[in-house]
Amino acid sequence: MSNIVLIGPMGSGKSTVGAALARRLGRPHVDSDHFFVARYGPIPDYFTTHGEKDFREREHRVVAELLDSPRPSVISLGGGAVMDERTRALLGEQMVIMLDITEEQAALRIGDGTTRPVLGDEPMEAWKRIYAEREGIYRACADMVLPADDESIETRVDTIVARLNPTPSGDDTTP
């Protein structure tokens, strides 16, 4: 079985849902942003020192490494990871789930945006612009899209597990 990869905009809960899903499925969970930070240091500092282009190159390498793990895992990607066409090509061999989010939910979750270097001085305006640019790519990559109305972590995990393991309909057998 392939990896399960969570994608979506900043603040959609990829890290939190990914960890809960991994526990439920008995798989390891890896967050590409956490992996990047462990290897290269804080993302805002990396952005400042090396720029977005270098960050995206290294991010792609991290994602490729994580996807190549011999043990199927739940992998949460940073919001911009899908912008690299090489990464998108690698996702074609995985089970990809997009976690969607409303603008109102994003405002509550991203706060002042200081830990998210691409948001700048007006985090919600930047979030809306970035979401508009990326939404079509997220949806094109996704095998499954969880709508924003599935708000709780457990509800999202329940929905994913149910869709991954559908029960046969019309089964008239009783134990």
UniProtKB/TrEMBL annotation:
CDD domains per the UniProt record, alphabetical: SK
Pathway(s) this gene product operates in, as recorded in its UniProt entry: Metabolic intermediate biosynthesis; chorismate biosynthesis; chorismate from D-erythrose 4-phosphate and phosphoenolpyruvate: step 5/7
Protein residues bound to ATP: 11-16, 116
Cofactor: Mg(2+)
Binding site for Mg(2+): 15
Pfam families with a match to the protein in the record: SKI
Alphabetical UniProt keywords: Amino-acid biosynthesis, Aromatic amino acid biosynthesis, ATP-binding, Cytoplasm, Kinase, Magnesium, Metal-binding, Nucleotide-binding, Transferase
GO CC annotation terms, alphabetical: cytosol
Assigned EC number: 2.7.1.71
InterPro entries: P-loop_NTPase (IPR027417), Shikimate/glucono_kinase (IPR031322), Shikimate_kinase/TSH1 (IPR000623), Shikimate_kinase_CS (IPR023000)
Cofactor note: Binds 1 Mg(2+) ion per subunit.
Domain of life: Bacteria
Entry keyword Amino-acid biosynthesis: yes
HAMAP family per UniProt: Shikimate_kinase
PANTHER family: SHIKIMATE KINASE, SHIKIMATE KINASE 1, CHLOROPLASTIC
Subunit and partners: Monomer.
Function: Catalyzes the specific phosphorylation of the 3-hydroxyl group of shikimic acid using ATP as a cosubstrate.
Name of protein: Shikimate kinase
Gene this protein is translated from: aroK
